[in-house]
Amino acid sequence: MALLGEITRPAVTLEKGAILARQGAALCSLFAVHTGSLKQVNVTDNGETLVTALCLPGDMVGLDAIDKGVFPGSLIALETSGVCEIPYEKLDALCDRSREARWLIQRCQSHDIHDERLKLHLLLHRTAEARLACFFLAISERFRLRGYSSHHFRLAMTRSDIASYLGLTPETVGRTLVNYQRQNVMLARGREFRILDLEQLKRLAEANGRRHRQRVSQ
Amino acid sequence: MALLGEITRPAVTLEKGAILARQGAALCSLFAVHTGSLKQVNVTDNGETLVTALCLPGDMVGLDAIDKGVFPGSLIALETSGVCEIPYEKLDALCDRSREARWLIQRCQSHDIHDERLKLHLLLHRTAEARLACFFLAISERFRLRGYSSHHFRLAMTRSDIASYLGLTPETVGRTLVNYQRQNVMLARGREFRILDLEQLKRLAEANGRRHRQRVSQ
DNA sequence: CGTTACCTTGATATATCTCAACTCAAGTGG
DNA sequence: CCACTTGAGTTGAGATATATCAAGGTAACG
Question: pTM for the whole thing?
């Protein structure tokens, strides 16, 4: 960890909307988000634009670029953000010398694989109400782990970004949020969010409103 | 690669339904699928059962277990299958000695992160018809890369497994398949599948029937 | 030959997408 | 300082994909 600090360059500041890496650009460095937030945007072959990741402080960015040596999506700052650059060459050399560094990277990657898999498969089976609940619970937990408030936070994403990330439309996201407000579960004004009833939010996230039969063998 | 062969144990045969690793079991070995196929099944905290991965010949299995040192889902043979065991300790030691081995593992992991992310986010936005088309295209491509027929194959999964994997119901999977048949795109009898019109299948996979507005900023 | 698991088909209900109009806030330039 | 523009968010009404429930069919298997 200390070694990692040695090869990390001082934090860079990105203005809102700045592009940290363009889709298809060669991987030169990984990044660690220090402050602010980024989104990863993928443009598919047939021209769709998808938000595939949200990067918050503490996150390691670019692990998905190692395979092909090329960033699979564009990284765009959602607000003024600070990121640390970790030159990939140096990181690789470090992994040569230190098995701890290697383990750290491997575990980060392994974590991401599992996390994406489970979360997204869960979302596939969920209603809009439950998807959003899952989303905010995950965000809340990430903020908590980083020492920020877990029940009151600002998300720089637009409703459209959230919708794209969750596979919904902006309208549905909006409507679901006002439902939460009516039920006194969450407060959403603009991009400020406040969780009022965490337990109820958890219940909503797990309630697979429809889709509740257990048909999978074994 | 040759070194990897040295530490790999001879292939083991699994009977249909056999459990290669149980969810929560400690990670001792990774596996490489040689013949047959496995599914990964996750039981969530609230008792849902999800099929989160399909493992075909050539796939590396267990990369998602490295993080916590524990398998995040059960690995179940869908048919009589042959797998090679790769003791994790030895693999780790090998990574110490050979940067090529380390790169191989890192690239496998990186590939999985990106693949899951993109494919699942795509699915989130797709109708049942397109989800199944994506699914079969991906399978077909995987078989092709391994030297099997890309337009005619057997999938040992049940409709329920497929449904769970794609976030649909078995009924919808079935109905969609008969639609494909009516359109002469695919033939599905039992677990034998034949792709009749690859181009049309690609078109179906990309056609996001609904959900076709571009609302994401940037 | 009966049992079991899987698959199919049909009718109905509902979640959510789609389209369109409107509000609101922020920023711009005259 | 005020009209104008622009992008985001909201709300409503209607269309539709797909879940749900239920019943019948098929195929493997002991």
Answer: 0.91
Residue A33 distance to chain B (closest CA, Å): 18
Query: Angle at Cα B175 formed by Cα B139 and Cα B210, nearest 5°?
Result: 80
3-state secondary structure at position B96: helix
pLDDT digits (tens, 9 = 90+) for A62-88: 999 999 999 999 999 999 999 999 999
CA–CA dist B51, B214 (Å, integer) = 31
Residue A74 CB-density burial (10 A; 0-12 exposed, 13-18 middle, 19+ buried) = buried
Cα angle at B104 between B101 and B110, to 5 degrees? 140
* Chain C bases closer than 7 A to any CB of the protein: 5-11, 15-20
For residue range A149-158, list pLDDT tens digits in order.
Answer: 999 999 999 9
Residue type, A173: V
Q: Is the pLDDT of residue B218 over 70?
A: no
Contact (CB<8Å) A106/B110? no
Q: Distance between CA A63 and CA A81 in Å, rounded?
A: 19
What CA dihedral angle connects A91, A96, A101 and A105, to 10 degrees? 70
Q: Is A155 left (phi over 0), alpha (psi -120 to 50) or beta?
A: beta
| B161 chain-A contacts, CB cut-off 8 A | 216-217
**Nearest amino-acid residue to D26, taking CA and C1':** B190
Q: Which of B45, B107, B160 sits opposite A217 (nearest CB)?
A: B160
Interval A18-34: pLDDT, tens: 999 999 999 999 999 99
Q: Across the interface, do A110 and B218 touch by the CB < 8 Å criterion?
A: no
Q: Is the CB of A171 under 7 A from strand D?
A: yes
* Structural domains in chain B, sorted by start: 2-121 (2.60.120.10), 127-206 (1.10.10.10)
Q: Which of B49, B124, B215 sits opposite A166 (nearest CB)?
A: B124
Position A75, amino acid: L
Residue nearest to nucleotide C16 (CA to C1'): A172
**Spatial separation of the C-alpha atoms in residues B40 and B73, rounded to whole Å:** 6
Rounded, the Å distance between the CA of A218 and C1' of D28 is: 18
Q: Which helix (H) or strand (E) holds A110?
A: helix A99-124
